[in-house]
Structure formats: structure tokens, C-alpha cells
Amino acid sequence: MTPEASVPGARAVRRGLPRVSGGEPWPPVSVVPVAAAKVAAVAATETAARPEVTPSEPVSPEKVAPVVATAAATAPEATPSAAGEGTKALRRGLPRVAGGEPWPPAGFAPTATAAVVTDAAAPQAAEAPAVAAAEVAAGPTRPEAPGDAPAASGGGVGTVPVETVVPAAPSTATGVPLTQPLPFRRTVWAGATAQTHPAAKAEPKRIGPFTRGQWAGAVIVGGAGLLYAAAMAVFAVRWLLSTQWGVDFLATYPGEYHLPEGAPVGVPAWLGWQHFFNVFLMVLIIRTGLQVRTEKRPTVFWSPRSNGRRKMSLNLWFHQSLDILWIVNGVIFVVLLFVTGQWMKIVPTSWEVFPNAISAGLQYVSLDWPTENGWVNYNSLQQLAYFATVFLAAPLAIATGVRMSHVWPKNAAGLNNAYPVEWARAVHFPVMLYFVVFIAVHVFLVFATGALRNLNHMYAAQGSVDPNAYADNWTGFWLFVASLAVIAIAWVAARPLVLAPIARLFGKVSGR
Fold first, then answer.
1. How high is the pLDDT of residue 62?
2. In Å, how far are 299, 302, 481, 498 from 312, measured between CA atoms?
3. What letters, b where the CB count within 10 A reaches 16 and e where it falls short, cover 415-451?
4. What is the Cα–Cα distance from 115 to 193, expressed in whole angstroms?
5. Beta carbons of 476 and 456 less than 8 angstroms apart
6. Where are the beta strands (DSSP E) in 243-395?
7. What is the Cα–Cα distance from 305 to 504, expressed in whole angstroms?
8. 262, CA 20 to 30 Å: which among 223, 337, 366, 455?
9. Which residues is 300 bridged to in the sheet?
10. Please, what sign has the CA dihedral across residues 386, 392, 393, 395?
11. Which positions ≥6 away from 64 have C-beta within 8 Å?
12. DSSP element (H, E) containing 232
């Protein structure tokens, strides 16, 4: 017979799996809910007061219910202060029902020990039957845990021992605290991933917003897209020019118009030298400009002798020095251009320049390129490009560069407000990009439309009205190669070890 069956009407405790391998189902047979233990304790008290009820007699629910009600109505409220020493006062909260008493009710004291109230005046003979009756009425109870201490309650005459079973201190059936793992046989093991901790991969180096691989992918994908778009454009333009409208348009506007009377023929030697100096300075200006834009902590500085506190990086000094030389070269170029009449070759003199420029552009796209002789005249698209570079882009670069340089007066508040430096920065860099694109396209077309003939015009000052006269002459080509060698030497030499002695001729050079 199980302990649950000893109490008629009692609810059986549902038991689960054992806590340890091969152990007893949990909870043990001796553990019952606290409420059943309290009911059993009150019933045992009533049995001890009435001799006609024997401990062996089963306690029915009809008999237990009035006893519980009477005990709850007549028993004095137990307070935590009535407990023994070392007990902790119980904090009571809000009632469970409206108008009820605070929860938990009075007399309910969940402590880490089982409360045992003993009246010293009660006979020892009456204690055993009362406890036995409580066990029969309440069913199985939890055995007293180690460390449980009795807590006295009340202590009035006529009271009997009452045992209240409450949850024990946090522990398991094996006596191991809940903060520690149970001593079960190990059934799960960590895999290789838990034992191996691979080192974190280093962050890939970025060039701007992307890594090298991302840039390579962007170049490949973008290049493929541009190549496809270019192929489609070639097919579309070739079809357009093959129509009757296209044939008539090319006949009316072949891509160039006749220059005014008195326009010079040929390329003078001074223009070839100006061209070389312009390329030489422009390449170094672009390089130093990018260095100034990207450097964060300069190591070498230059300052004028008149004001040693006004310092700039050596790269910035070199960039501005090259700018001055480029401006001087440009001024000489423009003066000679108008003195010799060469300006008529790069300055539009007729409104026909625009439809002819469209015609030349269509011919370039169709890959059936114009065949004009640069020794005599440029096509209209080429003329507009040269005009925009010399008379628009170059002055814009100078104006924005001066605003950002140390030459600009810093204390001129009105002038600074009228021309903010932010405007200059916003324009200067795009202008530099324009020069880069212009140089790349210009060099490509020079080689694609007759390299030897075009190089002879600009570097050797050799040419003829007959476009095929110098088509096999290599003089201009080797002069072009020599100019590239000079530019490469200057590129390599442009470093502090070489620049510092030159900079000391015009100011003071110091380190960080």
C-alpha cells in the first residue's frame, strides 16, 4: 500500500524520471506538497485533543475540513518574530483576492528548515499518536534535510507538536547544490570545433571603399559592361550613318571646316617644346597633387625665411612650385599662340564647328575615324577639346589652386566669404580628373590615327600638306621616347632626399 492511498480522497503525486542513473523515481515517496502536510498537522492536533479518534483510524476529508477551518479561525497569527533565532522575517505582499489578507497568509513561513513547535507541558505519550495521525492524514512527507532547525511558534498551554514540511534549501537528491552540475555519467562530449579556436582572419586591406578583390571584380564587371555598351553603340552609329540621312549629313559636315584666310600651316618648333614642358609639368603636378590629398602625417616641412612659423609639407611646396612653372609656361604659350596666329587652329571661328564636331564624334564611334591632316587643320571635335583645355580647364585649375594655396590672404574676411575655400576644393579635384581623362584619350588617338605622322608633327616639327609624306619617319617617335625617359627620371627623383636641397634654396626645411 502506497502512502498516497492511506488518505481517502488524497491526490496522488505524479512521479517522474530518477535524478540519477538507476535511482528512485523523482520525487521520493517521502516527499509531499506543503499544503497536504499543513492539513495533516492540523488534523493530528484535533486527534490528540479527542481521545475517541485513534491514530490508526483513517482521517476522512469531511473530518479534516472543519478542523482546518477551526484552526485557521482560532489560531493566533504567526509572525516571523515568533520564530527561533536565526530565522529571517518573511516579507508579505499583495492579497491574491480583492479585500483579502496579504500573501502569503499568516502562519505560512517557508524557511530552509522544517518548523517544529513543541509544548514542554504536553505529555510525551500524546506526542507520538498526534504525529502518527498527521502522517496518516497527510501521506508521505519529505525526510528532514540535514541542517534543518526547529522553529518555535506560539508556545501556549495545550498546544501540541506540529510539523510543517516546506521546501528545503536548493539542493538535489544527491546533496549537490543547484549552482553545480549534477554528478551524472557523461553522455555528451564537445566536438572538434569546441576544442579548436582558429585565429581570426585579418581584415583585408582596403583601397578607398573596396578591397583589392572587390576593385578587381568591379573593373572586370564594369569593363565588360562598357565593352558591351561600346559594341552596341558602334553597331547603332554605323547603321545610322549608312542611311540616306547619315550619308547626306557627312557630306554636308565632314568633321572640319576651312580656317580663315591667313591661318598658318604647320607646327613651329616652339610649340613642340611648349608641348613637352606642358606634359612634363602636368604629370608631376597630378602626382604631387594626389600625394598632398592622401598624406596624413607629413615628415618634412618647408617654411619661408620671412615667416618660419608658416609651414607646409615638402610635397605641398613641390606641388605649388610646379604649379608656378606650369603657369609661366602656359602664359608664354598663350602669348606666342596669338602672336604667331596659331590660335586660329584651336579657337573656333565659325558656328559650323558644332555640327562638324557631331559629325567627327559619330565617325569616331563608328570606328571610321576622320582622316584630317593635323599639320594643316584639326577636326572640329579636336578643336573644341583643345579650346576647352587651354581656355577653360587651365584657368579654372589656376583659380581654385590659388584659393587653396598659402598665397591667398588668410585675413581677408570679405574676400574669403565671397570665394569660400570649400568651393575651390569642390572644383579643383574634378578639374584634375578632366586633365587625366584628356591626356589618356589624346595619347590614345595620337597612336590610333597615325602614330609616326602625329609624333613627327608635335616632337620633331616635321610635316607636310601631303598626309603621307612623313608616315614612315621615326624621328618624332624617338624624341617622344626620350621625353618619357626624362619624365620617368623626374618621377623617381621627386622625393625628400632630392627635393630638400632644392627647397633650402628658397626657404627652410625641417622635420617633424
1. 52
2. 11, 5, 35, 17
3. eeeeeeeeebeeebeebbebbeebeeeeeeebeebbe
4. 52
5. yes
6. 300-303, 312-313
7. 10
8. 455
9. 511
10. positive
11. 39, 42, 43, 137
12. helix 212-242
Q: Do 365 and 234 meet the contact criterion of CB atoms below 8 Å apart?
A: yes
> How would you write 270-300 as a 3-class SS string?
HHHHHHHHHHHHHHHHHHHHHHHHHCCCCCE
Nearby residues of 502 by Cβ (< 8 Å), 6 or more positions away: none
Grid cell at residue 472: 614612315
Whether pTM > 0.70 for this model: the answer is no
Give the position of cell 596624413: 296
CA distance linking residue 313 with residue 293, whole number of Å:
12
Residue-wise pLDDT for 253-295, tens only, equals 999 998 888 888 888 999 999 999 999 999 999 999 888 888 8
Sorted by sequence, the CB contacts under 8 Å of residue 232 that are 6+ apart come out as none
- Give the amino acid at 365: V
Segment 87-92 mean pLDDT: 67
State pLDDT tens for residues 348-365: 999 999 999 999 999 999
At 474, which amino acid appears?
W
Q: Which three cell numbers stand for residue 288?
A: 604631387
Q: Which helix (H) or strand (E) holds 207?
A: strand 206-207
pLDDT of residue 130 exceeding 60? no
Q: Find the Cα–Cα–Cα–Cα dihedral 473, 279, 302, 407, rounded to 10°.
A: 150
Give strand pairing partners of 312: 302
Task: Specify which residues 303 forms β-bridges with.
Answer: 508
pLDDT-derived band of residue 308, with 50, 70 and 90 as boundaries?
low
CA distance linking residue 511 with residue 314, whole number of Å:
10
Q: Which of 45, 104, 50, 47 is nearest to 80 (CA)?
A: 104
Give the whole-angstrom CA distance, residue 210 versus residue 225: 19
